[in-house]
């Protein structure tokens, strides 16, 4: 296992739809092991394969709480059903989201309160998760990564402009930017 570099917004793999997993072999197990290790070191509550430069429909998550859902896992080839999204203004206290591929920044975004995720685990067993609250937010965020979408692409004003300004200020928004959890000290 190894900790992998996390690519930053501007890297093309983050901005294109990823491919279905078709080969459930040793390489997939190695990828997922690396994703767990990288996510834990970052630390993050979720990590999608394109964030370590791999254009496959795989994400890991780790969001322990007291519900019955498995709160740590991997989902392969997921589908997502999304409940209604409020039209209210996003709240900076309760709706602020971050992303390891836009490290150190947080901006508020309304998400659906309820989602259903289906997909497969590493042994190709089907998975279904009904999530709500912040766990539902994580599922939406990670699924978006597999569609080539970052949360900053969904922001409303004034946050969209603030995010663009921050990305420009850091010199991101172009290929070739990344950071390595455990080596680069980033307050993500
Ligand atoms: Ni993210």
TrEMBL record:
One term of GO molecular function: metal ion binding
Stored Gene3D superfamilies:
Peptide deformylase (3.90.45.10)
What GO biological process terms does the UniProt entry carry, in alphabetical order? Answer: translation
InterPro entries (alphabetical): Peptide_deformylase, Peptide_deformylase_sf
> Which Pfam families does this entry report, sorted A to Z?
Pep_deformylase (PF01327)
Q: Which UniProt keywords apply?
A: Hydrolase, Metal-binding, Protein biosynthesis
To which protein family does this belong?
Answer: Belongs to the polypeptide deformylase family.
Query: Could you tell me what this protein does?
Result: Removes the formyl group from the N-terminal Met of newly synthesized proteins.
NCBIfam families linked to this entry: pept_deformyl, PRK00150.1-3
Please report the name of this protein according to its UniProt entry.
Answer: Unannotated protein
